[in-house]
Amino acid sequence: VAPTTPVCEVPSSAMTGTVVQMSCKETEGSPPSEYQWYKNGVALLEKTGTGSARAANISYTMNKKSGTLLFNTVTKNDTGEYFCEASNGIGLSQKCSVKRMQV
């Protein structure tokens, strides 16, 4: 079954230095969807715990299985427009509407 449009939860504002968790979920897809987050239209890299993620100055953890995007400490650099895409290899992938977070 192809995924339905996911529900994204993105806070509209966050204080610098706080923990922010965004979530993305859809329930129709079978097999279960994987989720990809985008910021300002660019796919976010999945942090794998290697040194390259640190070198790229990645301050978040993205879980493609659960759809969560977790920022340990947000900075002004994390301000932007976020959306998430659900896909399971069947039918078209589905995106939620873009939501802006101001830090």
TrEMBL record:
UniProt superkingdom: Eukaryota
GO cellular component annotations of the record: bicellular tight junction; cell surface; plasma membrane; protein complex involved in cell adhesion
Matching Pfam families: Ig_3
UniProt cross-references to Gene3D superfamilies, sorted A to Z: Immunoglobulins (2.60.40.10)
Compartments in which it is found: Cell junction, Tight junction; Cell membrane
InterPro entries membership: Ig-like_dom, Ig-like_dom_sf, Ig-like_fold, Ig_sub, Ig_sub2, JAM2
Membrane topology category: Single-pass type I membrane protein
Family: Belongs to the immunoglobulin superfamily.
UniProt-recorded name of the protein: JAM2 protein
Organism per entry: Tychaedon coryphoeus
